[in-house]
Prior knowledge:
Order of helices and strands: EEEEHEEHEEEHEH
Radius of gyration: 16 Å
Largest sheet: 4 strands, antiparallel
Strand order of the largest sheet: 1-2-3-4
Helix content: 25-40%
Amino acid sequence: MSYRKLNVNGVEYRYVIGKKLLKLQKMGDKKFELIPNEKIGNQLYNTEIFVVTPGVIRDFILGNQLPQEFHCNRHDVTTSHLAYNPFDSEIYGKHHLMMDCPECRHNLEMDI
């Protein structure tokens, strides 16, 4: 298992993101902190998968509100869920994450 390093305000951490848990350790400490992904990550649309990124880990360390909430100004929707962009997935075969605004997702599906 390989660890990645993350520097937050001059303090070095190392972490591993698993399917269900985040394993986080402050450099110099002997103990690891185990955090369930569903506690801090954003749920992927229509799945039981929670997305955890280095930015999410940094926000957790800093004590910011998690999971992150996203607001669609065009449709006045607030959500903490993510979805794959259906246009990019279908046309380009690439999986780009976007906030899960049902109206935006529907418009992109209609563009296919």
